[in-house]
Automatic annotation (TrEMBL):
Positions of post-translational N6-(pyridoxal phosphate)lysine modification: K31
Listed Pfam families: Ala_racemase_N (PF01168)
Cofactor: pyridoxal 5'-phosphate
Native organism: Mameliella alba
NCBIfam families: YggS family pyridoxal phosphate-dependent enzyme
PANTHER family: PROLINE SYNTHETASE CO-TRANSCRIBED BACTERIAL HOMOLOG PROTEIN (PTHR10146), PYRIDOXAL PHOSPHATE HOMEOSTASIS PROTEIN (PTHR10146:SF14)
The protein, known as: Pyridoxal phosphate homeostasis protein
Domain Alanine racemase N-terminal, first and last residues per copy: 7-214
Stored InterPro entries: Ala_racemase_N (IPR001608), PLP-binding_barrel (IPR029066), PyrdxlP_homeostasis (IPR011078)
């Protein structure tokens, strides 16, 4: 696999769903990948990447951004409030807004800095104890709360439970987004991005299918 094969598969999934490819952004998830693999994808011209840790992103992206123009990095993993300010410097979007305290911190920093990354609210569609995200039942309330803080909500994000059919979770996420007037849907990974596109994904987060298996650290 690799970047161009994934791009082809995205184009095919869009065609089958009657969607334009420009409606779906491919976030190449570069966490824990050797730098030479990331650099190869940058050399191929890709410019949108995802990282799940602030610290790790801080270690590689300032250099890459200095060398390659037009790079965007999205945070797709949990964010601690004490790292929020650093996240503003590194990321153009945060996909893991999942609690009022974090939303309030982001709102405060946005006021101070005069800008804010695009935000996705993470929904724990599988109601898994160990997983981040607001529960589906709390989503409408939390979305309203974020809107009252004037946060730039782009949409919703989910990570389906590994054991379950992902499309059920993608449908649920879409339903919550629709009833709240949000059109951004960050859903779909290496194993299920085509299903996510069929169900309306606007941002697919694909790691191992582009870069190869993650090297264990
Ligand atoms: C690692 C990760 C991905 C990418 O996973 P792959 O299976 O390698 O495509 C997507 N989303 C999140 C939130 C991740 O942490």
């Amino acid at each position: 696999m690799g970047l161009s094969e994934i791009q082809d598969r995205i184009a095919k999934a869009c065609a089958e769903a009657g969607r334009d490819t420009s409606e779906v952004q491919l976030i190449a998830v570069s966490k824990v990948q050797p730098l030479d693999r990331v650099e190869a994808v940058l050399e191929e011209g890709h410019r949108l990447f995802g990282e799940n840790r602030v610290q790790e992103a801080a270690g590689k992206w300032p250099d890459f951004k200095a060398r390659f123009g037009g790079v965007s990095v999205h945070l797709i993993g949990p964010l601690q409030t004490n790292k929020a300010r650093q996240a503003f410097e590194l990321f153009d979007a945060i996909h893991s807004v999942d609690r009022p305290k974090l939303a309030r911190t982001i709102a405060r920093i946005a006021q101070e800095e005069g800008h804010c990354p695009e935000l996705f609210i993470q929904v724990n569609t599988g109601e898994e104890e160990q997983k981040a995200g607001v529960l589906p039942a709390d989503a409408d309330g939390f979305i309203a709360e974020c809107r009252e803080m004037d946060l730039p909500l782009r949409g919703l994000m989910c990570i389906p439970p590994v054991e379950e059919t992902p499309s059920l979770h993608f449908s649920l996420l879409r339903k919550i987004a629709e009833r709240n007037g949000l059109d951004g849907l960050s859903m779909g990974m290496s194993s299920d991005f085509e299903q996510a596109i069929a169900l309306g994904a606007t941002h697919v987060r694909v790691g191992s299918a582009i870069f190869g298996d993650r090297v264990k650290t």
